[in-house]
Each structure stands twice: as structure tokens, then as C-alpha cells.
């Protein structure tokens, strides 16, 4: 498999008045052609910042301070803005969380789709319009000609997210970063959107990073999964391995707190404590204060180890019985 | 839409009627114009004749009824001083005021919006800080004082433009205005700038606040993620959004420009309605005062109505509500 | 805890000793050098105005002390009586420095009096609206909105056109032009407070409406009222000057700063700038210093606006 994206040692820090927030602090992963990688974590774990870092959309006081982002072999971390502009929306597209907020409320759908094509290709408006229409058709929007005329507020949330997905695929990118694209939607719509996205990636061979806090979404969609906690990836591996036999106590906790049908009547597991204060992380393992398997070794920062064919940041892998999700 | 306009028109008529009561009784309760209009050595008979001629001997309710009846036929009474219909006097002075107000609005827009845009995009640059300090001054300085300073600097010291009066009047497409002659333009420059000052400050603040808010919105980040040029993001995505509040407020401010022109016209001896009003107040020329105030009220009500309609045209979200209603 | 204006427990938790809200406010206010300087200038202006009879070389309105011989002297000239007229003299021979300080007394009196009266009336009406609710509130707010759709300067002009000249009349005109701003401020706070869950909870517990108005809405609108009050007072002073300049405000017998500027206007075109310019500078310093203080007060008192 060819690697589309190769991120290694990525550090994105925010230099605020209160101190340095290490939102992303040493993240490594790769995404291959046609592969869907699920990036999972609580809010504030740095998963969205990772996505924005790849596109070079980190704004002051934030900055990529270290690490490398290789896209199709080229280094693009801290690349010049002009270079990044040719990639954004063209080779790497992004889908945002809230379709209510991301489509410009005062511009028509056609304007917002056509401009995405014209920014990268020298084609006629007519051609761009036709491609936009076809793209809307592909994501299952009925009578796309009419929808192109609409303003965002005239469409439902699901419709808007379909428009965003269609826009992301317009220029046949090599990679799509989807930042919690279904979080703001109803569950039934969620399933449809996931289905459309899956169908399109299969068809075009586009690689995808699907950022979410919802393990259930990733389970049915991703090929591989990376679990993030406090700016670092704590566990990474094939989707079945991780979901069925989580090793990191945090992953175990996350899976345990997903309500599923076959554990009816049992109390839901909850991870104790609160999401960490990014300004005052503990010296050793960031998950330490909430961990049930805490040992003396955990006062040091756990390195990445290869365990059972996946990478793991933990001194005490949990070899529990198989979970079902 | 029609229902909306009709309802607003009815409301407007009610406001105009209420204001007519307040203005008429307010103005007619104080002062006694007769003594200003008859010669000091006139005897009692002369004075009584004058009172009868002017209708001042009747009860105030009757005077108001007569005023209302006349007003319905477009007759707001005759000026005590000029002996001419008050409405005719005001309409005669109106073009000069309108020309001044439009010029000021134009200056406010072409100076205020670009400066506000700059200050919003680069809030930390020294120029932006200077612009903002200037706009605080623009809000604080009394208009008449700035007018005096403008006269002193440009007319007395530098002798670039004339200090007072309205210049030659030219004709273009059947419209008569001093804006069409060089002499006229040189005369209008100072008063228009003076009148515009407050609105320039307002335009700067509104635009800056709008730009700063819009730049933080998801749709701007999304537009960047699509790889659009900065130019297109600012001129299309940001400007289109902030123009809605800016146009609304600037439109509403047009009424206050006409109101404020009272001060500017007095300083620059500009022969408009405002100067007419001050002269009328000083001479207790009640019909002219009442007529001016009625016209102004009508103006405000009309401007509010027009701005509301304009707003619904500019903002697609408002338009939908109208169609639904 | 819910009775305090803002919740200080979070912001002050880190500091070792407990600060009172006032101490915190004072510390934050004096952080800005510009605002501190502006407050200082304003206090000096007020002091000069109060002390005017004791620190000026002449009483400009005592005809025995004014000599026409001294008319239109440029700044720095020596007066007939031997003292130096540092700011020159006006058309009728009054020392401008003295005239400005006496003028400030009148301008500040009008501005502060109308500001305070408008604040009290506007606040009372706003509270009545908040207390009564329903139709009364809708009716009051309708009037407020109607009035606010006209600029204050125009309302004040209408009022002086109706009322005539004089200190009492101009104060009345300014109060009528400005009360609505205060009423709107109170009502805005009332809306925010009533939307909060604790008010609903309080209502469910049967706590009286007057308690909600006086214990929750009133304390919460003090901060915005102070801010609106400073800005409106500055605008009242400036408005009075404008009206007086136009000849429809204060009469010649009560020469505020605006009257002085108007008197100097006729001499301006002949190059005798000082008669208008110096009173103008005094007015400017007063208005700008109040506005700068108000601007900063808004930042300090309203945590939401802090950047």
C-alpha cells in the first residue's frame, strides 16, 4: 500500500497568556491510499488540532513547533502558505463538524461549490457548475439543480453535511480529513452520512481521517484506529484488534462506557475524574490520575511500544477478556 | 411581504400622528410670537388684529384640529415671518440638505468601511490602533467644534476651500445640485466632511467589529480549508456577511445625518432645512418649526421602513421568513 | 452568593488574600494608564470649576471688573488692571481664562444634573417595566424604542424649540432626550436576569416579584448603568454646548462653554482664533476625558467584553 500521509513527531503548541498548551505533543501515524483511519478521543485531546495542523490552518497563538508531515512524500509541515493553498480543498479536503456554521449563510450553495473548483482549476463556470451538480447527485441529494440555487439555511442539517461532503470530493483529493462530521446530526442521518462517505472513499480510493469521539461510529467505518489522550496517541492498531482487545486502560474505559445492547441491565462503566487540564499535565503518564491500573512505573512518561502488532503508550497493558461492541 | 409592508405603513402613520400631537402642543405652549411680529409701538388693536389673522385667538384644540385638517391636504400653515406656506419653504430648502447628507453618507462609507476593514484584519498593527483612537475622538468631539476647526484650518489658514455657503448649482440628468460644479464641490467639501465625521467613526467601528467576528467564524476557516485566496475570503465571504449590519445601521443613520445637519448647516451657512429650523426657532416661527419636525418624523419613519425592506433583500435568512408568512 | 453582581469566587480563587469586588475593580481600572490620566484630568477640571471664584483674576460677569478696553486681546497680553491674560480676552474684554472656568461651572452643572436626573428617572421607569411585566412593560418599551429611533440631539432640539432658553429648561430637555437610554439598559439587564434559571426557580418557590426586581435585577444593572451614565453625561455636556452654540440653549446671561464658543465664532474668520479655540479645548478635554473613562469602565465592568 502507498502511504498518502505520514505524520511523525508532530507537536502543535498554543502559546497563551496562561502558559503553553501542548495540544498535540508528539503524534505519529500514517494513512495509506483508500484507507480510513479513525482518530478517537475526548474533546480537548488534540484530535481536531491534529487535523488542522495537517492543513496548516493553525492560527496564532498556536504553532507547529516540531515534527514532520509528509504528504505524498513531500514535507508540508510549516510549508509556505502559497504551497498549502494549492493543497487545501484540492489534494486534501476537510469536512467540519457543524454544517450549520461552516457553510457561509449568505452565499448560495452553487457559489460555495463552484469557488472550490475555480480556486484550483482553470475551467469555465459552466463546467464547474456541472461538476458541482454531479457531486451533489453522488451524495444522494435529490434534484441537485434546485439545491444548488438554495441558501444553506434552506437545507436541513443532513443536507448541508452532504453538500460539505460533495464539496470535499469535488477535486478528487487524495486525503479527506473529516472532523466529527456526524456529531451534530440525528442518529438516522448519521448513518446515511457515514454510508455516503464510505461509498465514496471506496469508489475513489481517497484516504480518510475520521475524527470523532464516538467509538461506535469508527467501529463500522475505519480500517485502523488511533486513540488520542492529552495530545498523544496512546493506542493505535487495526480496528478489530483495538475494539475487540483494547490494551490501554483509557481505550478499555472508552469502550466500557459505550452503551450497547448486549450489556443491558449492567451499569455503564465510567472513566473516573475529569478531562485533564492541558496547562497542568502530570509529569508521567497523562492518564495516570484517572487510571485504575496505576503503578509506580507510571510516574515516568510511557514510550511507544509495539505490543501485539499495534503501538501502545502504556506500562501496564490490559489483557482483558474480549469486549463486544 | 405585502402584509409586512402594509402593517409597517400603518404603524408608521400612528407614529406620525402621535408625534404631530406632541410637536404641535409642545411648540404652541411656549412663547408668544405676536410680539415679535408686530412693531413695538403697535397698539392693542393692531396686536389683536394680528392675533386673529394668525388664528392665535382660538383654543389650542381648535388650532390643532385646523392644523391636522390642513396637514391632510398638504398645508402645514403659513410662516409667520415669510408669509409663505411652511411646507413650501421647507421643500425649497430640502435639496441642499439632502445633497449634504448624501455626500456625508458617501464619505462615511468610502472612508469608514476600508479603514474598519483594515483595523479588523490587522488589529495589532500601529495603523489600526491609530484608526481606532481616531474613531474614539470622532465620537467624542462635538460636531460644531470640529466644524469650527475645519473652517479655521482649511478656509482661514490654508484658504483651500471657501468657508461658508453653497456653491454654483449645476444640472445633470434633470437633477439640480451643487455636486455637479467644481465650485459647488469646493463648497460642499467641508460641511460634508464635518457632518460625516461621526458616521465615519461609526462605520469604522461597525466594520471592524464585524470583520473580527466573521474572521473567527467556522465558515471562514472552512473557506480557507477549501484553498480559496485570502482576497476572495475577505471580499466575498467576510464582506458579504458584514455588509448586512453595516448597510442597515448606515441606512438608519441617514435620518440622523439629516437631523445633525442642523448644526453643520448653521456653522457653514449652508442654506438647507436645518438652518431654516434654527432661524425659525429663534424667531418663534411656529408653523415652520412644526412643519420641519413633521417632515423629519416622516423621514425617519420612511427610512426605517426602507431599511427594513433593504435588510430583507440583503439577508437571505430574513427573506425566507417573509415567504413563509 | 447569587446576590452579588458577579461570581467572584472563580476569579479570585487563585489570589492568596481575598479581594473585595471594589478592590479588584479599582486595581483593574488603574491598570490602564490612559484611563487613569483621563480620570485625573477630569477631576482637575471639576476642581478648577469649583474653585473658579478663588483662582481667577476677575469675575467675568461683574461689570465692575471688566473693561471694554481689554477687548479681543491676544493670549499673553497684559490687562488694564495689570494681570496677564494668558488666554487672551473676548469681544467684551473678559479674561478668557476666567470666563472658561466660570463657563465650566455652568456646563458641568447642566451635564451632571441632567445625567443624574435622567439616570434616576430612566432607572425608575425601567424597573417599573421590569416589575410590572406584560402589557405595561410592552407599552413602556414601545415608547422607549420609538424615542430611541430618533437621535438624542434631535429630541433635545425639539424640546428646546418647545421649552425655550434657560438652565432649568435645558436640563429638562436633556433629561427628556436621554432617559430612554437608561430605561433600555435596565430592561436589557432585566431580560437577561429573568431568563436565568434561578429566577424561574425563585418564582416556583413563591418569592415575590419585588424581591426579584430589587435583589437581582437592580444590583445587576448597576454596572451597565454606570457605564451608560458616564457616556451619556459626556454627551449631555457636548449637546448643551451644541445647543448653546446654535443660540437655542443657554442665554448670554448664563454663559456656558458653548455660549463662549459661539461668541468667539464671529471673530474667527478674522483670525482671532483664541476666543473660540480655548473654550473649545476646555470642552474637548472634558468630554474626551469622560468618554475615555467610560470606555475603560465598560471594559472593566463587563467581563464578557474583555479580550
How would you summarize what this structure contains?
With 325 residues, chain A is an alpha/beta fold.
Structure notes:
- The complex is a heterotrimer of chains A (325), B (325) and C (307).
- Chain A is of the alpha/beta class.
- In chain A, 31% of the residues lie in helices and 24% in strands.
- Chain B has a two-stranded antiparallel ribbon with strand order 1-2.
- The longest helix of chain B is centred in the C-terminal third of the chain and has 39 residues, at 230-268.
- Chain C has a domain at 95-305: MetI-like fold, CATH 1.10.3720.10.
- In chain C, 69% of the residues lie in helices and 1% in strands.
- Chain C is built from ten helices and two strands; from the N terminus they run H-H-E-E-H-H-H-H-H-H-H-H.
- Chain C has a two-stranded antiparallel ribbon.
- In chain C, helix 3 packs antiparallel against helix 4 (134-148), helix 3 (96-132) crosses helix 9 (257-268) and helix 8 (209-246) runs parallel beside helix 9.
- The radius of gyration of chain C is 23 Å and the shape is elongated.
- The chains are: A alpha/beta (325), B mainly alpha (325), C mainly alpha (307).
- At the B-C interface, helix 1, helix 6, helix 7, helix 10 and helix 11 of B face helix 5, helix 8, helix 9 and helix 10 of C.
